[in-house]
Amino acid sequence: MDFLNVIKERARSSKKTIVLPESYEIRNLKAAEQILKEGIADIILVGDKSKILEAGKGLDLEAAIFINPESYERMDEMVAELVEIRKSKGVTPEEARKMLDDPLFFGVMLVKMEVADGMVSGAIHSTANVLRPALQILKTDPSADLVSAFFIMVCPDKTYGADGVFLFADCALNQNPTSAELAGIAASSAKSFKAFVGEEARIAMLSHSTMGSAKHADIDKVVEAVKIAKEKYPDIMVDGEMQLDAAIVPSVGEQKAPNSAVAGKANVLVFPDLDAGNIGYKLVQRLAGAEAYGPVLQGIAKPVNDLSRGCSAEDIVGVVALTAVQAQMNSK
To answer: Residue 237: in which H helix or E strand, if any?
Structure first.
């Protein structure tokens, strides 16, 4: 069974409720139909039911849960809770109600109030717009140093990684992480890899240098990140700095880093900055024909995940399945 089908099966085993707040957008509605048909999750659609059904004309969406903010019976309760959450910013009930006109804020509040277990958005909104309500309302998971993003990459050539499966981080969020932030990304990624793939993470901190083969301030940042990660998170297997081939190709790893337990065996790749990560995952996706699942956010108190604005309905189905599995992990 391939990776996505395994994730879907796990999602079905303890069904969660996921809100898709971009509920008038056709890719979301096509995804909702498929998710409901396959029993992957229960789906909340936000807005006027008749208008949503008109937008998805021809789709079978009757099994969805429709919540219209204009007539929601718990709106006063939601406003009061949002005022309490944002009281340090002096948010008034009137301002809170206006914030909830935004379907993304409304969707995140459904997660906060445990009406939904997670949210998936971003097909027509920027990452910043998706993250803003999540960070303001749900906040960072106390066990995480920062919020970061990863992709699960499933390569058709199963020679490398965990039978062809890798986790790439951070490919979507942190532009130029510090050494300490890179270490935090590595720690969060180790947990995520174990949770989704079921194997122990072997984390390579990537660079254009392997174990001191070159000198530059950018390399120093990665070297320091490895040092911090090993000291702060002794239970994770992490090493570097490493070039990509030294990280994943056994013969090259043995030659360039013979004393490393990670070199040549890495299944989690932590990129030095967002440019490298974003370019890297898209190269593997387009040139190697890998399936890319994400971006999945890690480090938020409850699951909220961002979509690429170029996503397909199938992509949304995959991210919803991943989000449902994250929600299962949160409930343990």
So the answer is: strand 237-242
For the chain, domains (ranges, CATH) are: 3-139+301-330 (3.40.50.10950), 148-287 (3.40.50.10750)
pLDDT tens for each residue of 290-314? 988 888 899 999 999 998 888 899 9
User: Can you point out the beta strands (E) in 22-164?
Assistant: 42-46, 65-67, 118-121, 148-154
Residue where the block lists tokens 């990684």:
161
At how many degrees (to 10) do helices 313-330 and 3-13 cross?
A: 50
For residue 166, which phi and psi values (nearest 5 degrees)? Answer: -130, 160
Residue 247 token pair: 């990280």
pLDDT digits (tens, 9 = 90+) for 141-156: 888 889 999 999 999 9
CB-based contact 253:247 (threshold 8 Å): yes
The Cα 31–Cα 43 span in angstroms is 10
Q: Rounded to an integer, what distance in angstroms lies between the CA atom of residue 230 and that of residue 55?
A: 52
DSSP structure string for 181-232: HHHHHHHHHHHHHHHHH-S--EEEEE-SSSTTSS--HHHHHHHHHHHHHHHH
Q: What is the pTM of this model?
A: 0.87
Gap between the Cα atoms of 291 and 309, Å rounded: 17
Q: Mean pLDDT throughout 28-47? A: 98
